[in-house]
Amino acid sequence: MISSLQDKTTLRNGINMPWLGLGVFKVAEGPELVNAVKFAIARGYRSIDTAAIYENEAGVGQGIREGLKEAGIPREELFVTSKVWNADLGYETTLAAYETSLKKLGLEYLDLYLIHWPVAGKFNEAWRALETLYKAGKVKAIGVSNFQVHHLEDLMQDAEIKPMVNQVEYHPRLTQTEVQAFCREHGIQMEAWSPLMQGQLLDHPALREIAGKYGKSVAQVIIRWDLQNGVVTIPKSTTEHRIAENAAVFDFELSPEDMERIGALNKNLRVGPDPDNFDF
């Protein structure tokens, strides 16, 4: 049982990645962002996830520096993720994009760098760049985001190094069972973005009933469901009480029956783009 905010999964290359982190999807630069990152670190979060396209890497970096200093925590205890955007996919452009992200964040390295979307004809060269960064010791782990099984198969045909993480939209309405099975088979850690379906699940009757049974919020139940399914999760929030609430999921465990009941809510519904039909 995953029993604390400091618990980690071990990626295929031996790097430890926290099971729960803070997502900052398109949170605007400014005090709200900086304070959210600082508060998360103060409350025990050890994973922060951003991306070049979110246009907030500078604020995330400020929050990290101030948060680590105030908490007296070394950089090495924090797991920081960013992603290369579609316009920069390619070998040299991906290498340059990585350096740009580092500069904006004010960091010497990233713990995880991801290809954000599987742009056909471009992600293989971008992956070669990630392999170069990894082999040079400039990033601790490399992976992808929003890759379906056929994208992963395509990538892995020519890759020297398998992706260590696949971050995908994942929630009770989109359980991605085929992707999850493939990732497990190949030692790729699955990670959930939009685990709460951008709030659309918070009033679902079945989820509210289950939450009441455990004396928890619907958000806490969904996050716990993710973790018990072996999926790293990064719920987005900028409010202190929500950041704290999202982390209060380690004092209960969902029964097998409730896990199955939540999984049965799947309708293959997305709130984000379909990776196979995304207008890049």
From TrEMBL:
Keywords recorded for this protein, A-Z: Oxidoreductase
Domain NADP-dependent oxidoreductase: 31-266
Active-site annotation: Y54 (proton donor)
Residues annotated to bind substrate: H116
Top-level taxon: Bacteria
Molecular function GO labels: oxidoreductase activity
Gene3D superfamilies named among the record's database cross-references: NADP-dependent oxidoreductase domain (3.20.20.100)
Family, per entry: Belongs to the aldo/keto reductase family.
Name of this chain's protein: Aldo/keto reductase
Species of the source: Paenibacillus oralis
